[in-house]
Amino acid sequence: MRARLALLAAAVSVLTLVAFLVPLALLVRTVAEDRATVRATADAQSLVPVVGAADPATIRLTVERLAVESGRPVSVFLPDGTVLGTPAPRTPAVALAARGQSLTAESADGREVVIAVQGRPDGTGVIRTVVPGAELTAGVGRAWLVLALLGGLLVVISLVVADRLAHTLVRPISELSAVSHRLANADLDARVTPAGPTELREVAGALNHLAGRIQELLGQEREQVADLSHRLRTPLTALRLEAESLGDPQDAARITSAVDGLERAVTGLIRQARRQRPAVGPVGCDAAAVVADRVQFWSVLAEDTGRTVHRELASGPLPVAVPAEDLAAAVDALLGNVFAHTPDGTPFTVRLAVTGNVAAGARGAPAGSRGETAGARGAAGGSRGEVLLSVADEGPGMPPDTVRRGASTAGSTGLGLDIARRAAEAGGGRLELRTGPAGGAEVVLRLAPPAATAS
């Protein structure tokens, strides 16, 4: 924008200067020609008294002296045909002047000035002088150069002024753009200092008002979510007391552990709801540790419901660009869907591998009564490839439009798969749905390593 305004100012300045300087330059040339012509005419007219009354010898001396002083050829044509002074042919202008008419005519040598002198006893005499082209244009080139320099200086001044004016417009616009980008990146404290023309000041004020309103609404939403989450602590406390009153220590410990996990999730939700700024610096976790922990947790419930769990988990560390809490919530959502939407006794498989090493996860002998297999130790640790987390069941499958927030065909909230999708996409990955090897549903999370995420 700044360059375009400067270009516009330059174009207007050049057009204006051309409109004024070209006629002025032509006028300068005309004035120079007229000045030289008037000077030559005055010199020629100074000879009129001599030519009209003196003898030829006196006329010759006077004409020769004037030619030397003026630097122009001067000739006198007497009625008897004698030419005194600078030799010159009788031109049509001389012939016309011999009839008594003085005039100025253009010739190949320059501008010809002829003056008719009447009153001689033998007829009309003619005085002729020629103004050379160099004298006609004397000083014109210098004047044109001065005009050109003046025009260039005016163009430069107009460009400087236009650039300063453009700066007063572009700087507030750039600040508006920078603040809008900061707001888009969740920096809700960003504000614009109103500057520039009235219209830009109004826009800056409107943007500041919008940012303040967004901050106010988000604050209210955070408090509402935090309050709602805090209300869950009361039933959790009652559930913990009920668990502690159970007679079977193992059942009490198991239920208490589940309550502890739920309470940690609620606490994390409150902290996340009250977080005013996005996390700074790289975030991530070890996918192998998080997935193994959550699969171990759900394996207890799988045993109670008669489900066979096949685990094909690569050994860690497998760093991914997803916080541990988010990845744990995603795994819980995927495994919770298996328990919620498939009949008791339906087997399911959890695979964790690195891109290019998926096959390695299938190696290993069955281990344990639940049909588990040893993890793919060779898909290991230091790899920086994409990490694949797959949860496949042998149930009836799922509709194709399941991954839509709030949409569910099974009477649930419809948030589980969306939680997993957002967790993967926040770290630069994605979620895929497809039919599993046994005909049921298979959900694949492709998780990017921390270095692959955009800052």
UniProtKB/TrEMBL annotation:
Pfam family membership, one: HAMP
Reactions catalysed: ATP + protein L-histidine = ADP + protein N-phospho-L-histidine
Annotated GO MF terms: ATP binding; phosphoprotein phosphatase activity; phosphorelay sensor kinase activity
InterPro entries given in the database record: 2C_sensor_his_kinase, HAMP_dom, HATPase_C_sf, HATPase_dom, His_kinase_dom, HisK_dim/P_dom, HisK_dim/P_sf, Sig_transdc_His_kin-like_C
PROSITE patterns linked: HAMP, HIS_KIN
Cofactor: Mg(2+); Mn(2+)
This protein's UniProt keywords: ATP-binding, Cell membrane, Hydrolase, Kinase, Magnesium, Manganese, Membrane, Nucleotide-binding, Phosphoprotein, Protein phosphatase, Stress response, Transferase, Transmembrane, Transmembrane helix, Two-component regulatory system, Virulence
Biased composition (Low complexity): 362-377
Location(s) in or outside the cell: Cell membrane
Residues covered by region (Disordered): 362-382, 393-412
Membrane topology annotation: Multi-pass membrane protein
Transmembrane segments: 143-162
GO cellular component terms attached to this protein's record: plasma membrane
Entry EC no(s): 2.7.13.3
UniProt-recorded name of the protein: Signal transduction histidine-protein kinase/phosphatase MprB
Native organism: Micromonospora sagamiensis
